[in-house]
Every structure is written in structure tokens, then in C-alpha cells.
Write a structure and sequence with these properties.
about 375 residues; alpha/beta; Rossmann fold; 3 domains; 8 helices; 17 strands; tRNA-specific 2-thiouridylase MnmA; tRNA-binding; tRNA-uridine 2-sulfurtransferase activity; disulfide bond; nucleotide-binding
């Protein structure tokens, strides 16, 4: 097959490309330039998409003896990921930019261009597996190493995208195995630290970064009863589940700490309350997509058992889910959790599993606490 290897400049993508070459595929490496003003050097393991990363990707391709190109996707990345991130926070939601990047850049824009150029598949260093069922339908599954599994952030992929996706690291036992393989292959990125946090906020200060992008207006902090207990400098800087930095003027009656329960951007109000009210048992999701063909219960409008996960490395929780039209006739996903999940926020993504298989995902529109259901 003719394979386009997405080269981030990290060890995972380098080893994935090496495995694709070893498997006999015709491989071409490409590094995505996602910023028009990339930093020259990353800070430790923070950030990515720097000039250093581009250089490391080129060195890996040179070592593997494959062509190397840089594609400028910076304008689309800004529009589809960065601007979306800002807009979501401005609306009081908590977005996941990695989901948006996979959905709209790596497996939409990149795959679209790759197929137009005659490539059969896009190869990445994600830890996940693509399988086929007896009918030949493509399915997305967790990787063997659950500690590094990245199927959650790939939950936005469609059946058509899975048909052209290649994840050579699906069967590795650990990240240590990947680093050891990179060293054996003579790849210079073998000991390069993993990137983490949001790639376009390299110093990790999301609140400070947002303060420069969103107009912050002082407002009230109220408790779950509606009583004013403090003030804030900008509601958009808070996230559901936050405890630190509230600076409340009125202590709770029981003396226990309070947490952010809700952000109301239209009222410019932050709602706080006891930790118990963070225990969510019902989630309503919109913008549903299925990772492969949807299971039969979806088409029949029946509820089905599943495991629900709302963070990339969060623990999945047993649940039952059902798809039904909302008031506007648009499909909505209702997920009822068997066990409460703490601090779920609108804007996050809920990904559903059965066993190791990813069923699909939805953007969380509302999340209801135990005490508020009924």
C-alpha cells in the first residue's frame, strides 16, 4: 500500500513509520505545520509542533530512507481547533482540542489530501487498533497497553476514516518497548520526552492564555441555592470541578470546601457548591458520531449497555445509553451511569465502549447530578 506517515517529531510516530516501512509499504513522511509562529524549542515535555519537532521528524525520515515533506495546515488548525477552543470557553463549555484536531485536521484535512494524492492510508503513532468484523466492517478498539491507550481521542473517527487509518503501535506492550525499538533502529528521538498539555499553550497556563483571548468581565459567584458568596474577574476562566482560586468571601455553612458546579456565561455567573453535587449520573450528548457501523440497538432506538469515558485517561464507568430525537428532531444521546462520575462538564466528550470496541462519541450538552435527577 501507499502510506502517508504523519510525523509529529516524537518517538511514537517515528516507530510507527518504521514499522510501516518494514511491513513493505511505500511510505512517505509528512510533518504538519500547525502554527505560523512555532517556538524554536519546546519546554521539556510541554507543547509540540515546534521547529525542533519538525527537525526531529526530518531526521527520522532520513534514517528510514523515506521522503519527507512539511504541509502547512496552520490556517485550518487555527480556525478549526484554536478558534473553536476559544469560542467554547467563551460559551462556558470545556472543550477537548485533541478531539477536534483528530476530527478536523489529522483525520479529515490530512486524510482528504492524502487520498486525493493517491495514498491508501494515513499512518500515525496513536495507541489504538483497527479491526474488521465478519462482514468486513471496520471497528476501532483499544490498544493492548491500556495505560497508553488513545482510542478515546480517536472516538470521533468515522467508518470511512477507519478504513484508511493505520495504527502500527496497537500491539505494543508498553511505551518502554517503543523507546527500546527506537533505540535499536537508531532513531534519535528514542529518549525524547512525550509532549503533554494543550499543544498551542506550551507553558501550560490555560487560564492566562484565555485571559488574552476572551474579554473577562467581573461578576458574581453564587452557591447552589442562589445566594451570592463571592465575586470573580471573569467566568470564562473557571472550569467545572475547580476548587482552587475561588476566593470566596462567604464560607460554607458546614465549613467544607466548595467546587465549581456550573458556569453561566450569559449571566456571567459561576455556581459553586458541595463536592456531592459534582457526582453526575446522567449525561446528554449532541453531535453524535459512530466509530464504524453503529450497533443494531442504535438503529432500533433501543437502549444498550456500554462503558462511558469522559477523559482521555479517565476510568470508564458502566452505563446504559439510548439515542432519541430532542425537541428539534436532532438525535441526542442519553447516557445513564451505573456509578456516579465526578466533575463532568458541558463541552467535554463522552466516548462509549463495549469491551475494547469504541462505539462512538458525543459532545456533552448537559450533565445532571444525583441530587438534581428526579
Amino acid at each position: 500500500m501507499k502510506v502517508l506517515a504523519a510525523m509529529s517529531g516524537g518517538v511514537d510516530s517515528a516507530v510507527a513509520a518504521a514499522r510501516a516501512v518494514e511491513a513493505g509499504h511505500e511510505v512517505v513522511g509528512v510533518h504538519l505545520a500547525l502554527s505560523r509562529m512555532p517556538g524554536t524549542l519546546r519546554t521539556g515535555s510541554r507543547g509540540c509542533c515546534t521547529i525542533e519537532d519538525s527537525t526531529d521528524a526530518w531526521k527520522a525520515c532520513e534514517k528510514l530512507g523515506i521522503p519527507y515533506y512539511v504541509w502547512d495546515f496552520s490556517e485550518r488548525f487555527k480556525e478549526e481547533v484554536v478558534d473553536d477552543f476559544i469560542a467554547e470557553y467563551a460559551a462556558g463549555r470545556t472543550p477537548n482540542p485533541c478531539m477536534r484536531c483528530n476530527e478536523r485536521i489529522k483525520f479529515a484535512a490530512l486524510l482528504e489530501k492524502a487520498l486525493a494524492l493517491g495514498f491508501d492510508a494515513v499512518c500515525t503513532g496513536h495507541y489504538a487498533r483497527v479491526d474488521q468484523d465478519e462482514a468486513g466492517n471496520y471497528e476501532l478498539h483499544r490498544a493492548n497497553d491500556w495505560a497508553k491507550d488513545q482510542s478515546y481521542v480517536l472516538g470521533v473517527l468515522t467508518h470511512e476514516q477507519l478504513a484508511h487509518s493505520m495504527f502500527p503501535l496497537a500491539d505494543v506492550a508498553s511505551k518502554a518497548e517503543v523507546r527500546a525499538e527506537a533505540e535499536r533502529r537508531g532513531l534519535s528521538v528514542a529518549k525524547k520526552p512525550d509532549s503533554h498539555d494543550i499543544c498551542f499553550i506550551s507553558d501550560g497556563d490555560t487560564r492566562g492564555w484565555l485571559a488574552e483571548k476572551i474579554e473577562m468581565t467581573p461578576g458574581q459567584v453564587i452557591d447552589e441555592t442562589g445566594a451570592t458568596v463571592g465575586s470573580h474577574e471573569g467566568a470564562n476562566a473557571f472550569t467545572v470541578g475547580q476548587r482552587r482560586g475561588l476566593k470566596l468571601g462567604t464560607p460554607a455553612a458546614d465549613g467544607k470546601p466548595r467546587f465549581v458546579l456550573e458556569i453561566r456565561p450569559k449571566e456571567n455567573t459561576v455556581v459553586v457548591g458541595p463536592e456531592a453535587l459534582l457526582a453526575i449520573q446522567e449525561i446528554r450528548g449532541i453531535k453524535i458520531s459512530w466509530a464504524g457501523e453503529p450497533i443494531a440497538e442504535v438503529g432500533r432506538g433501543e437502549d444498550f449497555p456500554c462503558m462511558a469515558q469522559v477523559r482521555a485517561h479517565g476510568d470508564p464507568v458502566p452505563a446504559r445509553a439510548r439515542v432519541e430525537p430532542d425537541q428539534d428532531g436532532i438525535p441526542a444521546l442519553t447516557v445513564t451511569l451505573d456509578e456516579p462520575m465526578r466533575g463532568v462538564a458541558p463541552g467535554q466528550t463522552v466516548v462509549l465502549y463495549q469491551g475494547t470496541r469504541v462505539l462512538g462519541q458525543a459532545t456533552i450538552d448537559t450533565a445532571r447530578a444525583l441530587e438534581r435527577i428526579g
